[in-house]
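Severity: low
Component: inverse-folding endpoint
Summary: output formatting inconsistent between runs
Steps to reproduce: submit the following structure tokens with default settings.
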């Protein structure tokens, strides 16, 4: 699940790690980062988690 331009998403069981990947901008939150975060969090919320 890493089809995002500015985010990296990793899953390990019931844990998801979302990393902002904009080192040139010191990982500042832009409108695009916020939009991608919303999409990622919605997708993770809709996922069935195995404990």
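Observed output (run 2 of 3):
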């Amino acid at each position: 699940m890493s089809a995002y331009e500015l985010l990296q998403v990793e899953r390990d069981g019931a844990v998801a790690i979302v990393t902002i990947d904009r080192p040139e901008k010191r990982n500042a939150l832009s409108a695009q980062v916020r939009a991608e975060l919303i999409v990622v969090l919605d997708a993770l919320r809709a996922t069935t988690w195995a404990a």
